[in-house]
Design brief:
Number of strands: 0
Strand content: under 5%
Order of helices and strands: HHH
Structural class: mainly alpha
Number of domains: 1
Distance between the termini: 100 Å
Radius of gyration: 34 Å
Length: about 130
């Protein structure tokens, strides 16, 4: 088997869009040839058409999934903001119910009013 007859095995790096567009244009050009009959059936027009159709479906799936991901991120951000707002409200309610100096304030992660350092008057040096 000659080097050029072997299928090209590449790593899973995405091909540039220009390469894919050129391959699609090649398919259109080969379709216009009325007498194209490859010796190797792996390089038939039907094979290339199937691969092009599969590629188109995969690209459409990517677009659809990217849109779903975008919407899921929006929902996650909105839900995180709602959770945070509720958490702030809970803190306010704990303060209202138990007072600024209760142990419940420390339990929810705040500092009791009595634990704050009292301000001291500065001595003025003249």
């Amino acid at each position: 088997m000659r080097e050029r007859d072997r299928p090209v095995v590449t790593q899973l790096n995405r091909l540039p869009p220009s390469v894919t567009a050129a391959d699609r244009e090649l398919l259109r050009a080969v379709q216009s040839l009325g007498d194209y009959q490859p010796v190797n059936s792996s390089y038939s027009i039907a094979t290339m058409q199937q691969q092009e159709a599969s590629l188109t479906q995969a690209e459409l799936s990517i677009v659809r999934l990217e849109e779903e991901l975008k919407q899921a991120r929006i929902v996650a951000i909105e839900t995180a903001h709602a959770l945070h707002s509720t958490g702030l409200g809970v803190k306010e309610q704990v303060i209202a119910q138990y007072g600024h100096d209760s142990t419940a304030i420390e339990i929810i992660g705040l500092t009791r009013k009595s634990a704050h350092k009292r301000p001291t008057r500065r001595k003025v040096t003249a």
